[in-house]
Write a structure and sequence with these properties.
Elements lengths: L3 H19 L5 H6 L5 E8 L3 E2 L3 H11 L4 E4 L6 E2 L4 E8 H31 L6 E3 L9 H10 L13 E3 L1 H7 L2 H11 L6 E5 L2 H10 L3 E5 L3 H11 L4 E5 L17 E3 L2 H4 L6 E8 L3
Parallel strand pairs: 6-11, 7-8, 8-9, 9-10, 10-11
Antiparallel strand pairs: 1-5, 1-12, 2-4, 3-5
Length: 286
C-alpha cells in the first residue's frame, strides 16, 4: 500500500495525468445522458481467475474526481480472485462513476495482470533459495504501479531507477573499455555503501569481474552449461543474478542452479491484463 506522502507526491499526479488524457474538456457521452447529479452504485466484477492488485489506485481515481465517492472492497491486494466474484462496490455521483470507469479499470487490470503473472513465476521457484526480481522494462510513467504489483505477486524489486544502484551493462563496459576498468571507475565514483553489479556474457568476463571485485555478477543470456561453469568459478565470491529473456515458460532450466537471483523483464513488459469489469450501474434513491 502506498503511504500518504507517496500517494500525494508520486501517485496522484500520474492518475490526474491519466484522467486528463481521457477527459480533455468534458465527458460528452456521460453529460448527454446524465446532465445533473444522481447518486448511483456499480459493481466491480472479476471476469477471470487471478491475483488482485491496485485497490488503492482504483479508489483514488474516483476520489480525485469527487472525494465523496465511496468504494467498498470485499477483497484486498494480493488476494486470489475467481471468475464471477464481486470485488467491490463503488457509490457516488453517477457522472463520476462513468467518467472514471476506464481509467480506474486500466490501472487495476494492468496491476492485477502483473501480480498474477509474477505469482505464477514465483510459485515455480518454491523450495529454492532464489529470489525473483523485476527490471526497468516497465511502461513509461507506470513504473511505480508495475513494480508495486510485482511485490504484491511475491517478487522483489531490482533497482527502481538509474539513481538507485550501480549496474554496469554491456554498453557501460564498452564505454569504459573493459569490465575491470568499468568496475574500477564505479568504485571510485559511487558511494562506498553501494554494491557494484556487472553484467557479463562470457566466462572470460566472469573472471575479469571477480578479479576486479564486483559485488554482484549478472550472468546474461548464457547457455545452461555456461551458467554452470560460471557459477562454479564464482564459488560464493560474489552474489549471482541470472537474466536474459526469462519467462514462466523457460525458467525451468534455471531453477536448480542455486543462484541468488533471477531477473525477468517479462514480469512487467509481457504480463497480460487481468479481465475486470464495472457492471450493473444503477441509481440509488437517497
Amino acid at each position: 500500500m502506498f503511504d500518504n506522502a507517496t500517494l500525494k507526491l508520486k501517485v496522484d499526479p500520474l492518475i490526474l495525468g491519466a484522467l486528463d488524457e481521457d477527459i480533455t474538456s468534458e465527458d460528452v457521452s456521460t453529460n448527454s445522458v446524465m446532465p445533473s447529479y444522481q447518486k448511483g452504485e456499480v459493481d466491480l466484477i472479476c471476469k477471470e481467475d487471478g491475483v488482485l492488485c491496485g485497490c488503492q489506485v482504483f479508489e483514488r481515481v474516483f476520489t480525485l474526481l469527487d472525494d465523496k465517492t465511496e468504494v467498498t472492497f470485499y477483497k484486498n491486494d494480493g488476494d486470489d480472485i475467481k471468475k464471477g466474484e464481486l470485488i467491490a462496490k463503488v457509490t457516488g455521483d453517477i457522472r463520476v462513476l462513468l467518467s472514471g470507469e476506464r481509467t480506474a479499470l486500466n490501472y487495476m487490470q494492468r496491476m492485477s495482470g502483473v501480480a498474477t503473472y509474477t505469482r505464477q513465476v514465483v510459485s515455480l521457484l518454491d523450495g529454492t533459495k532464489t529470489t525473483l526480481l523485476d527490471t526497468r522494462k516497465t511502461t513509461p510513467n507506470n513504473r511505480i504501479f508495475e513494480k508495486y504489483a510485482v511485490r504484491i505477486g511475491g517478487g522483489k524489486n531490482h533497482r527502481y531507477n538509474l539513481s538507485d544502484g550501480v549496474l554496469l551493462k554491456d554498453n557501460h563496459i564498452g564505454a569504459a573499455g573493459s569490465v575491470a576498468n568499468a568496475i574500477k571507475m564505479a568504485k571510485k565514483y559511487a558511494p562506498f555503501v553501494r554494491k557494484i553489479e556487472v553484467e557479463v556474457e562470457s566466462f572470460d568476463m566472469v573472471k575479469e569481474a571477480i578479479d576486479a571485485g564486483a559485488d554482484i555478477i549478472m550472468l546474461d543470456n548464457m547457455t545452461t552449461e555456461e551458467l554452470k561453469q560460471a557459477i562454479e568459478y564464482i564459488d560464493g565470491r560474489a552474489e549471482i543474478e541470472v537474466s536474459g529473456n526469462v519467462t514462466k515458460e523457460n525458467i525451468a532450466r534455471l531453477i536448480d542452479l542455486g543462484v541468488d537471483f533471477i531477473s525477468s523483464g517479462a514480469l512487467t513488459h509481457s504480463a497480460p491484463i487481468l479481465d475486470l469489469s464495472l457492471k450493473n450501474l444503477h441509481p440509488v434513491v437517497e
